[in-house]
Amino acid sequence: MTKDDGEMVEEQKKKPCRFWIWALSSVLFRLILISFSGNLNLSSRPEVSTPLTSIRRLAEGYWLKQASMSPYAGSMYHGSPLLLSLLGPLTVQRVKGQPSHLFCSLVFVIADILSAMLLRGIGKKLQMAYGLNARLLGLVKSPRDKGILPCGDIAALVYLWNPFTIVCCVGLSTSPIENLAVILALNGAVTRRVPLAAFGLVMATHLSLYPAILTIPVIFLLGYGLDAPPLKLFLQTRNVESENRSTSSASKQAKSKPTAHLPFLWKTVVHFVFWVLVWSLCVVVLCSLSLSKHGGLEEMFRRTYGFILSIEDLSPNIGVFWYFFAEVFDFFRNFFLIVFHVNILFMLLPLAIRLKHRPCFLAFIFLAISSLLKSYPSVGDSALYLSLWALFVNELADMKFSFFLFCGYLGVSLLSPVMHNLWIWRGTGNANFYFGNAIGYACFQIVFVVESVSAMLNHDRALKRCNSNHQKVEN
Amino acid sequence: MAGLVLTRPIPLLILQSFLLAVAFGSNEVEEEFSEALLLKPLPDRKVLAHFHFENRAPPSNSHGRHHHLFPKAISQLVQKFRVKEMELSFTQGRWNHEHWGGSDPLSSMNAKPVGVELWAVFDVPHSQVDASWKNLTHALSGLFCASINYLESSASYAAPTWGFGRNSDKLRYGSLPREAVCTENLTPWLKLLPCRDKDGISALMNRPSVYRGFYHSQRLYLSMVDSGEEGVGSGMLLEQTLTVVLQPDDVSVEKHLQPSWSLSSLFGRNVVGKCVLAKSSNVYLQMEGLAHPEAHTLWKNAEFELSIKPDRTLRESSSVLFIYSIDKSSDSEPFDLGLTWKLPSKWSCQQAPLHASRFLMGSGNERGAIAILLKATESQDKLSGRDLTNGRCTIKANIFQIFPWYVKVYYHTLQIFVDQQQNTSSEVLKKINVSPSTDKMSSGMMEMMLELPCEVKSAAISIEYDKGFLHIDEYPPDANQGFDIPSALISFPDHHASLDFKEELSTLPLLSKFKDKSLVRSYTEVLLVPLTTPDFSMPYNVITITCTVFALYFGSLLNALRRRIGEEERFLKSKGKKTGGLKQLLSRFTAKIRGRPVESPSSDSPATRSSILSTKLLFKIILVAVAAAAWQFFSTDM
Lengths: 475, 638
Fold this sequence. Notes:
A: globular; disordered C terminus; B: alpha+beta; eleven-stranded mixed β-sheet; six-stranded antiparallel β-sheet; 15 helices; 27 strands; elongated; disordered N terminus; endoplasmic reticulum (chain A); GPI-anchor biosynthesis (chain A); transmembrane helix (chain A)
């Protein structure tokens, strides 16, 4: 163990240097863009700011609150009251000669950096687990195998340099903070800090509702441990060296007790549930305190979760629901609302059954699905799942259509402003132009999700085949 | 007023009044009706004609049962919906504040926003105000053949607290800028008059000439007059006015001379006698800004000449009023007042302290800003209305504005510029009350009180908004025309418009109305906001395409997840006996479609597959045949 670590540290010494240069340059790039944010006018792009994440709406909510009205009066603000207390005062702070909302921008930059660091932490753990499992299965002989990519660094850089993330950060949408909460939950679960995981999950759910489905992968992470090949493989593996490992509890358990059942750490999960309850209570109490004068919690739930679920705002975004519900007959509205929301829930169980040995990957798929079927999606959601996808570069190396998907994402993100301009500003196009773009984006996301899942399953299949043939597989 | 008995021409009415007098005693106060027409030459070679009909029903226990003159439809309205005060106006054209006056009672009461404006104060508990309003709009809609019922929806009316000038929490205000006003609205309005348009002054309302005008505003004002006595109830006052601005046919050659006109040239008709039911029936001619103040008593002077000698002449500080009674006119001798100009004459009207206009900023269909611009006018009245608070001379202006919900206003972007300098709000903005709009539920309302220094040249208020996106059913038939933002109301609480002629004749209805101090107010333009439209022909396409995409998602993801089962089965089966099954076939088929190599292709020979296929085909055909036979059987049986 000491030998391995020493080698890893030595190996990392060269790379971190490059990593830090890139990370710092991304921060610098953001700061430069922030100083031009007045000209970029990104904060009013429908791709960046949705009714839920727009800073202008947040500022309006803060103004209403200062005017001793409920921040939810009218239909402007639909976010969390805690975020309002945090960011609201910053929206009115002005520095002369500096772009407005400078402090908010800085908060978002810090949120991005934190998210990237937490992602790097997740990636390091995953990378170690991957190497460990590969050795356990006898696929990789030496831990210094160059085939294992440093997925943590890659994911962090993908997050920092993703144009979607940069645009969200500079465009003053609150999605960096929502993403931070999600990554916090995952990081807490991966590093087995139960209170942190619970806090992240509760905050993420409070901010944008959809991360609630991450409860399943987080429980799996805490119960079963990190991503590993299916248990059967370990059972099949005869010649496992008896080494003392502490990182991957699942593999440890599996090794010591060669039973057919994967052990589930009920104690940790109960601990987690307890912390979730504690944090939810905190959030509810804080919210009710901040809203005690007007409306209270009932109004908050109606205006935040109710707004998300009933898709009241039909302003265009990169999703498809705005146009669908602008066109659909009122009679069928409720039916389709139920169908679309249930579509997310329907896939949870099959995915959870099939990928329970890879909880981190499950979390990534859940986030991608929720970004696809969200009421008000923005590119910030895509930024999150794309960087999580980079955590699995080792496993998903032979993913199909990756170039096609890359071109698709690029094309959509270039065409979307063009179509929007044609429709809204020039009036030479109509709504179908932009909607067609959104449909294309949805299709690419679907292909992305399906191909990721199949690639992961194929990877497991390949491991199994290699294992049974006692061959070495290069990833 | 009391004890006045009109001679009634119809015996039935006499009988009725006699019976009523017997039933309720002799202290019964009669209902009164009076008609008046005010004519006023305007500086920009136009003529303003203001018809004023006043109908009073005294407080009585019996009101609602019998009315001699008061329209029954209105009294029923009052009883049913407990209306305390109400004003309804139908307007076409825009009041030109610069030339037609801004601070005299005539303009502050009759310059109305385009379309329909309705406000009402109710005498019901708070919880029932909205319900009463809704019922009232429907009743008025039927009464006046207008789409006032659109004001029923909570997204189209507001409850102003102080910005409207009337501090009542039971007040509701709504306006329909799009409403077209035409004879179909005038006819029911005339039906409320005792003589309709058959006799008296209203006979002048020749439709083509009335609607040819530059401005046309037909107004109905109703208020309860408290008697102060217990158990008597309250009387009703119904004021119907029609204000038209007409362009006289100019026959004179000289360009500088104001056009000469007469009643018959303006309206194409003459007054041939008063409405016999009217208590008073007068025609007034108001001349403003006469060059020779000492010549005010002369109705024939060097400057102009009137065709008929006035019965009386009254003067005010800046204007002269000639009064005519039309009692003496008859068929043989019609009353045809005419004005002939002899010398070129120029004068200006009293203007409001600030001239308000409103415009939109920005382009595109996503967002924009509304700006209200207040410009100082050459007003003599400014000094008289000034308010010296803390030694500073200030002008107070109240702005009342309704925003429809699809104009999503960001109140935190409110900016105030005084003389092109951005001002911190607290300096100028004394008071603000905002009720934000809720999507599809309620309209937004903004009331603000500005206190501007007297020497201000211009003040501008700008506020940003996002344009809403509507469901296809919410667009009107002509969706691309755009949507209207109702006029903003600018009122000056320290300025009051009144004309006091300091005569006992001020008891005449129109003159007493002028004597009352009324708030100086002006309405801004209606704004047209174009909203982007979805494709109205697309609902089916959108539904099918979206559902296809989600079916693709669901199907392909589920397929990707369950692929292993088939694979394993195939693996097992290829080891063991090769029994073809539906599942195996399907999995192989999907594998083939997806272009994936089948794990154990060698184990399958084409012969076995074809045999499986054929048995399956046979099974399918049999199934279809059975279904068809069953269908045939049942359909013939029915």
